[in-house]
Design brief:
Blueprint: H1 6-15, H2 19-29, H3 32-48, H4 58-76, H5 82-91, H6 100-118, H7 122-133, H8 138-145, H9 149-169, H10 179-190
């Protein structure tokens, strides 16, 4: 009977399946001849980490170790290839959280969208809100509003088309054309 330690099982189940991605990442950060050494060193550090089972994203954990080891090597090296520095700078953006500009920009866009939604016909507005903001299915919206599924889908399509048109054509300022004028203009252009 083969007996494996808990850390060995964790390594086999959670880390080894990503070995190709680890090698590819290492090859981007260091010379191809050093890539395998970097991956092996990352494996050793991952195995030495306390409480491996508590690591939520083992693949990301090992990728971070690889990146940090590459940074360490580049700091110690007297000559660094420019393409490795570019790849490493790209890796610094691993945090997927939006920056302040993106947050404020998103809030402004959401506020603008909510203003534009006020100009939608009542049923189209309700259908768009239920579908896009609450995630309800068209059949559930139909039951809730006492409409057919086909009618709900038509209201949804109309509401989204009006919003898309308004977002494309209306300037962010409130002096812009109203939704109804934009929708009428779009209908005349397509006819």
């Amino acid at each position: 009977m083969t007996w494996l330690r808990d850390v060995d099982r964790w390594f086999i189940d959670e880390v080894l399946p990503h070995r190709v991605a680890f090698r590819r990442q290492a090859a981007r950060l260091v010379s191809p001849g050093d890539a395998e050494d970097l991956v092996q060193e990352a494996y050793a550090r991952a195995i030495d980490a306390a409480n491996q089972r508590e690591i939520a994203n083992p693949r990301g954990f090992v990728m971070t170790i690889i990146r940090n080891l590459a940074h360490e090597r580049h700091r110690r090296a007297s000559v660094v290839r420019f393409e490795h520095l570019a790849d490493m700078e790209a890796m610094d953006f691993a945090d997927g959280a939006p920056d302040q500009f993106a947050v404020v920009s998103g809030q402004i866009e959401l506020s603008r969208l909510m203003e534009l939604m006020e100009g939608l016909p009542a049923q189209a507005r309700t259908v768009v809100q239920l579908r896009r903001f609450e995630g309800m299915l068209p059949r559930d919206i139909a039951v809730r509003m006492g409409l057919s599924v086909s009618t709900v889908e038509k209201h949804l399509a109309k509401g989204l088309a009006i919003l898309a048109c308004a977002l494309q054509e209306a300037p962010p300022q409130s002096e812009g054309p109203t939704i109804s004028r934009l929708w009428q203009r779009r209908r005349h252009q397509t006819n």
